[in-house]
Specification:
A five-stranded parallel sheet has the order 2-1-3-4-5, sandwiched between helices. The protein is 48% helix and 15% strand. The chain starts with a strand and ends in a 12-residue tail after the last helix. It is built from seven helices and five strands. It is an alpha/beta fold. It is globular, with a radius of gyration of 15 Å. α1 runs antiparallel to α7, α3 runs parallel beside α4 and α5 packs antiparallel against α6. The protein has one domain: Rossmann fold (3-Layer(aba) Sandwich), CATH 3.40.50.
């Protein structure tokens, strides 16, 4: 099973995203800041990190810098999920070889899962397609809507 670490300080984003990942067949691990994320990395195998930039304590940039300094995590794929459209923080994570940067208000769940599938491999992507029906039900429950379509849903 593919392990994905969500590093996001806002539980209103972190928890629904974790639930969707689990319904899609991934193992979702959660951390509210970079310090918690480091603790998870030390105790769990992680295949991919979904990282918010702006967090209290150890933020996304500081976390990425530490990650890239460590040999065992240097090549760990990181998708940055951010509300920041430009600036030094965004520039810095690009310099640190973030695998991708997605702007929170501008990507759909489908786009995120397609990107995850590209990064972790086709086998995981096939697991994702098998879980679409349950995922749609979960999106409805998470968003408080019924019959939420898979396409065009944003976080």
């Amino acid at each position: 099973m593919t392990n994905i670490l969500i590093v996001e300080d806002h539980s209103i984003v972190r928890e629904p995203l974790a639930r969707l990942l689990r319904l899609e067949g991934y193992r979702a691990l959660c951390a509210a800041d970079g310090n918690e994320a480091l603790a998870v990395l030390r105790s769990e195998h992680v295949d991919l990190v979904l990282l918010d930039l702006m967090m209290p304590h150890k933020g996304g940039v500081a976390f990425m810098e530490m990650l890239r300094e460590q040999e065992r995590w240097r090549d760990l794929p990181v998708i940055v999920l951010t509300g920041v459209l430009e600036g030094s923080a965004l520039q810095r994570v690009r310099e640190l070889n973030a695998t991708d940067v997605l702007t929170k208000a501008r990507f759909t769940v489908d786009e995120l899962f397609a990107r995850i599938g590209q990064i972790v491999g086709k086998e995981a992507e096939n697991e994702v397609s098998r879980g679409q029906s349950e995922c749609c039900k979960a999106k409805s429950a998470v968003c408080g809507m019924q019959n939420l379509p898979r396409r065009g849903v944003s976080l």
